[in-house]
Amino acid sequence: MEKNAKIYVAGHRGMVGSALVRRLQSEGYENIIVRTSRELDLRNQQAVTEFFEAERPEYVFLAAAKVGGIMANNIYRAEFLYDNLQIQNNVIHNAYATGTKKLMFLGSSCIYPKMAPQPLKEDYLLTGPLEYTNEPYAIAKITGIKMCESYRKQYGCDFISVMPTNLYGPNDNYDLNNSHVLPAMIRKFHEAKTEGKPFVELWGTGSPLREFLHADDLADACVYLMKNYDGEQFVNIGVGEDISIKSLAELIKETVGYGGQIHWNTDKPDGTPRKLMDVARLHEMGWKHKYSLEEGIKITYQDFLSKMTEYSV
Ligand SMILES: NC(=O)c1ccc[n+]([C@@H]2O[C@H](COP(=O)([O-])OP(=O)(O)OC[C@H]3O[C@@H](n4cnc5c(N)ncnc54)[C@H](OP(=O)(O)O)[C@@H]3O)[C@@H](O)[C@H]2O)c1
Predict the structure, then answer these.
(1) Which of 213, 269, 282, 284 has the least C-beta neighbours within 10 A?
(2) What is the CATH number of the domain that holds 148?
(3) What is the 10 CA–ligand 1 centroid distance (Å)?
(4) The total number of structural domains that make up the chain
């Protein structure tokens, strides 16, 4: 990827897209094209076709998607399926039609089968039933991976896919209605601290094990693979280590400086006992994460504080 290459980062205002732009700029890439969803609704086939015909990006990072926590995925099932299929169909097909040199599609660790063995190896995709709550999202994402694979096979396109684990970092979504566990905890502990609440209630027992990757590490891995990988098989991106939700809560509580208690509401479900990626292939390719969880949470809490008014805390 030459320094003056024309690179389109789709979804540049999101957590992943903004990290990708930061990463590319820090490496001296200056010819980066971006559009907000208002300027270019990627669900609109005509608009996307016109955009690609006019701009003809040489490289595309497809980090635009409809994304949310378990509740949003389950309630807006039709939107998660339709929006994501439209976005990826339009972008991938038009990248092919206008001769994009290379494209990266982002999947997600939550699209592996519900009962897949742990740690999750790349080979486990499509080996069993999916988790019901996010099935529409997963079906769309699996289709995106298959599109990249199929456009490579039929048309020879250098389109690759990656499978990131749970992410966190600057520009995360702290809205409790549709946020993921880590930003939701940051907000809950911060609010409890400022309002002087004696305890914070969290769902489940705290025993499930989860893996978390900083968005800047993900962006680093994506740019690394864009430069160094051109295989058909998608690649897991993670840290290869997990932490219990209980330990995560303690870590965030300490970072936020909250002095109260944590009450575990064991009437609420725990979800899958463990979710961990097997990152052996990525490590063999020469990439490893840099941020420790402690360091990453400190940075993310500062990001949350800078956005407090937006979330009217
Ligand atoms: N977050 C995670 O933990 C995680 C984990 C694994 C994989 N991923 C994958 O990483 C990718 C990015 O996720 P994220 O967490 O960065 O999401 P995010 O913060 O919600 O950002 C998504 C971006 O997509 C854009 N977008 C959504 N609908 C659009 C539309 N119709 N037209 C144009 N743009 C649209 C939005 O643009 P505007 O801001 O302009 O509206 C937004 O900036 C997704 O493919 C997701 O599956 C995320």
Answers:
(1) 284
(2) 3.40.50.720
(3) 9
(4) 1
